[in-house]
Amino acid sequence: MDIFKELTLNAVQIIQLMIAPAVMISACGLLLLGINNKYSLVVNRIRLLNEEKRKLMIKIGEHPVTTDENVRLESIATQIGALVYRSKLVRNSVLSYTIAVALFIITSMLLGISSFLALGRLNYFIIAAFLVGMIFVLVGIVFAGLETKKGYDIILYEVKAHE
Questions:
Q1: How far apart are CA 135 and CA 145, in angstroms?
Q2: What pLDDT, on the 0 to 100 scale, is given for residue 7?
Q3: Total domain count, the chain
Q4: Rounded CA gap, 9 and 7, in Å?
């Protein structure tokens, strides 16, 4: 039984249907804005640590390595590795949100095409595109959550390394 077979919509109903993907596009835009800010902070932190490492290496070249300098070098290396992993999580989150936006745009376009050409067969594709878009939003949120946890782990490591 085809539940969409007898479905006919007027212009107002079609516009209302097209609003849901538009709202999700806006929501993903806000999520992207926040995660891009985190990405900038992570990249900046990597650059600062690399600069500190270079200065420390120059200083070490001038005299024998002290225990404190050796501990700091190990701490910097560990943090840079963790920050690179964190940047990959951010990248995955951004890609997930971007794919979700593309799917919501496709959903909206398919809604318009379906209603304009009276193609009820597209309803399955419309629903599928929207649901897959929502799944990608969820995946992006999971990556963002993992990235937040990793950021906290890095902070804990840095505090413990200098106690």
A1: 15
A2: 52
A3: 1
A4: 7
